[in-house]
Every structure is written in C-alpha cells, then in structure tokens.
Amino acid sequence: MSPRLLVTGAGGFIGGHVVAALGESRDVTPSRIRLLLRHPGSLPPAGGPVAGAPAADVVRADLADPASLRGVCDGIDVVLHCASHIGDDERLTETVNDHGTRALVEEATRAGAARVVYVSTAAVYGRGPFTGALPGELPLAPVSPTSRSRAAAERHVLDAGGVVLRPHLVLGAGDRWVVPGLAGLLGLLSAGLKGCTARHSVVDVRALGRAVVAAGLSDRDLTGAHHVNHPEPVDCSELLDTLADRLGLRLPGPPVDIDEARTRLAGRPRALHHLGMLAVDHWFADDRFWGAVGADPGTGFARSLAEHAVWYREFMGR
User: Fold this and answer.
1) Could you give the C-alpha distances from 36 to 79, 211, 245, in angstroms and in order?
2) 92-146 confidence digits (pLDDT tens)
3) What angle do CA 12, 51, 176 make, to 5 degrees?
4) Does residue 197 sit within a domain?
C-alpha cells in the first residue's frame, strides 16, 4: 500500500507543483493524499498554472494557529511541508514560518509520521559569494526576517530527524518573484549586463516538485539539509540575456557593466540589493541528491524559461 502523505501550502507556488507531481507519480494513490490549506478554496483551478491532483482529503488549518493543527497528521506517513509566509509583516512571518513549523513538527511526531520534508531556501546562508558550495560547508547567516524565520523552521525539522531542501532561484509557472523581479531590474536599466560572470543556481519548479515528492518517498536515509538546484549554474549575463530574449523585453540601450548599472540604479535600494546579489556567485552544488532520490533535475535554465515563457508574458502583461 502506498504511503499516506500530507502536503502543506498546496495552494501555493511550490506546493501546487508538489501536488501536480504527486498526481503524476505511480507510487502514490490519490486517495492517500491529504492537503492542508488555510483556505480550502485556494487549490489551483483546472487550467491554471498548476492543475491540482485529485485528493480524497482536504483539511483546513492555519500554521499561525497551532490549535488548528491538532489531528492533521493522524494516519500520515510523510509530511511534505511547502508552506511559508513571505512578506513585510515580520511578526506574522515569524509566527507562520518558525512557530507554525514547530507546531507542525510536534504534531507529526505525536502522530508517528515517519518523515518530514521541508522546502526552505538557500537564502538562509545570507549574502554571497558562494561558489560550488556543498551542504554542510556554509554557516547559516540569514539577513532578512523571512530567511531568519525559515532558518528557525529548518532547526525544528532537523532536530526531529527530518529532511530540509534548499533551492536558490526557483522559476516556472506561478513564480511572481524571481523572473518578474529580474525583468523589472532590466526595465530600470533599459539594458542588459555585460561582463558579469557570477554564477547562479536555478531550478525549474516542476523539477523541484518532483524532488520534494521523491525525497518524501525515498527509502534512503536523507536526514539533513540538501541543495536542490539544476547541476549546471548559469552566469549572470547569460541569465539576463536569455530572459530578455525569451520574454521579448525591449531594452533600447546597449549592455552596461556592473559599475554603470549601479550608477543608473542610484536611489533605488531594492534594485541595488538585487544587483549586488547578481554580481557575485550564488552557486550551490549537491551532486548526490538527484541520483540518491531518483529524480530528474530538469533541462536547465534556458529551456525551462522557454517552456514557461507564455505564462510569464501573460502574468507580466496583467
């Protein structure tokens, strides 16, 4: 009999793709999937960016309300924890990501769940450069309230013997942050970047969804943290040039170097922050993970972006 799985954040960007990956898996019976939603009506509709897999069990609970989590893990073998709060409300971010994860892990432990897989972020390492960094080599040094709260959430999962997955840049249908943010940066510059060879780890959200499912179902001991990105990083100039080409962005000026880009973005601290990140390596390696769980890391940045380009153009057009 296939294991019984609980997915948190099933109505969100990554969680929705995890639900889709479960629907495609031959190792999971749809009737043994339970979806935890704060708003049960938030499942992606058919025809949306992600078509939800059929589920026999949808439960309403809120990570900000620990009492609502009582019983959600009863009968569950594997918890796939994809829910997190990203926003400017620091107190809510801490409540959901840190305290909510602690309450969920305690409930999973009480119910006897065999494994908890938590989707975190490489942002828990703070600012780069990070070059070919392997899990366990870097200290955690989160900078933002969101990354600090997610580092705290990781600790609850790891202390319980769980699995933490740390992607860097996640792209694909439903992404409202990474590619739109980079497109906005190019728009402010009215030009591409030249001579920027800093390397960045990326992962297609569909591959990440498959990785989360595979980590939950694997019979291997995966306890600990893992980097979950495509094995080949992409350099900064190529990343931005490909994005402009695939999305048909109009950049009237010739490419500029990093110093000129900083001059053009003077007075825009958020844009300068993103440029500063792009200008140094954020390359997180983990050669063993994909083979260990038997998952496909996808086709790489350029092809993935091409496959999602229609969704991005429609989203940014709105």
Assistant:
1) 10, 20, 39
2) 999 999 999 999 999 999 999 999 999 999 999 999 999 999 998 999 999 999 9
3) 40
4) no
Which tokens hold the place of 5? 């799985």
Q: Which of 133, 122, 292 is nearest to 221 (CA)?
A: 292
Distances (CA, A) of 282 to 132, 171, 177, 278: 8, 15, 17, 8
- Separation between Cα atoms, residue 110 and residue 243, nearest integer Å: 46
The number of angstroms, rounded, from the C-alpha of 168 to the middle of its chain's C-alpha atoms is: 7
Domain range for 29 is 5-172+204-230+283-298
The structure tokens listed for 23 are 């629907």
Half-sphere exposure of 186 (CA within 13 A, CB side): 27
The verdict on residue 70 lying in a domain is yes
How many structural domains comprise the chain?
Answer: 1
Nearest partner of 24 among 167, 175, 207, judged by Cα: 207
pLDDT at 45: 47
Q: Over 60: is that where the pLDDT of 51 sits?
A: no
242 within some domain: no
Alpha-carbon span 313 to 303, nearest angstrom = 16
CA distance 158 to 181: 31
What type of residue is 200? Answer: H
Burial zone of 67 (CB within 10 Å; 0-12 exposed, 13-18 middle, 19+ buried): exposed
CATH code of the domain containing 76: 3.40.50.720
- From residue 195, alpha-carbon distances to 91, 252, 256, 258, 279 in Å are 41, 18, 8, 8, 10
Contact predicate 40/69, CB 8 Å: no
The mean pLDDT value for 166-180 works out to 96
Nearest to 53 by CA among 26, 81, 32, 23: 23
Q: Which residue has the tokens 């983990």?
A: 286
Q: Which helix (H) or strand (E) holds 284?
A: strand 282-284
